[in-house]
Amino acid sequence: MSSMYKPNISNTEKWVSTIAGTALALAGLRKSNRMLSVAGLGLVARGVSGFCPVSKAAGRNTASTDTRSALGGSRGIRVEASTTIYRPAQEVYAYWRQFDNLPRFMSHLQEVRDLGNGRSEWTAKGPLGVPVSWTAEIINDISPELISWRSTGDADVVSAGSVRFTAAPGDHGTEVRVKLQYDPPAGKIGATVAWLFGEDPQTQIEEDLRRFKQLLETGEISTGARYAASSDKRLRRDQQTTRDFNEPLTAR
User: Fold this and answer.
1) Are residues 46 and 91 in the same domain?
2) Cα angle vertex 46, ends 44, 50, to 5°?
3) What residue numbers bound the domain in which 50 lies?
4) Do residues 200 and 155 share a domain?
5) For FRET with 241, which of 99, 106, 180, 215 sits at 20 to 30 Å CA-CA?
6) Model-level pTM?
7) What does the pLDDT look like over 147-197, one tens digit per residue?
8) Helices 11-30 and 187-196 meet at what angle, rounded to 10?
9) DSSP of 177-201
């Protein structure tokens, strides 16, 4: 292979692209949809070769895991959402800052483990349910106003994000505004495949915030939301959270 076609996607992207492409091609065959089949075969070829012409044209190379190079300009996927929660900013901030709370309302997250010194390990459901993981570090932490973070090292998902906590006008709770930018396995093509299987990132974060609001205002998430968002194990954890919710949030 000449240098013109030098591999420019990570090993994680290769196997995710191959798995997603195979599933997409099979779905196209079942539905007699030629476009889906062709798109699936294209992803398989991308995964097998390790070369993505779209990434090359965009100057994207996931061999580099630096968030500035991977997410600069128009690269990556960007989502933004907000909600108002009728609880004091300090309590809302403290609950979010305890990162192992996040999987309780973020449906795509399986686990967030605190590594100390502002670092944490995140595990999420990737395209077609394939687990992906990365290590993140806090780059800004202003209590009770702002938390921002970015991925580090050889991350499956190169990402950066922030959440702001602002007192709502008239002493009516706290406005929570989340901004996320990430480069998923298989890049924007992978995000498109995920969308085909019902996992739109914008809708996902909006629903996550809705569950977060329910959890902090009522102490629980509606039964339907819990079943849609989590496994039976996480359901039991949510029930325990409900029992303990009257404890001070800052004590967690």
Assistant:
1) no
2) 125
3) 3-58
4) yes
5) 180
6) 0.61
7) 999 988 766 667 888 999 999 988 789 999 999 887 765 555 555 545 545
8) 40
9) EEEEEEE-TTHHHHHHHHHHTT--H
Give the pLDDT score at 22: 85
Tell me the pairing of strands 146-152 and 158-167. Answer: antiparallel
Q: Tell me, rounded to whole angstroms, the distance of Cα 16 from its chain centroid.
A: 16
Same domain as 32, residue 87: no
- The alpha-helical segments, DSSP class H, found in the chain are 11-30, 34-49, 53-58, 67-71, 89-97, 187-196, 201-218, 223-229, 232-244
d(CA 76, CA 66): 13
228 and 103 assigned to the same domain: yes
Please give the Cα distance from 94 to 103 (Å, whole number): 15
Joined tokens for residue 125: 């459901």
The one-character DSSP state at 111 is E
- What's the Rg (C-alpha) of the chain? 20
Output 171 or 104, whichever has higher pLDDT: 104
Residue 93, token pair as written in the block: 């901030």
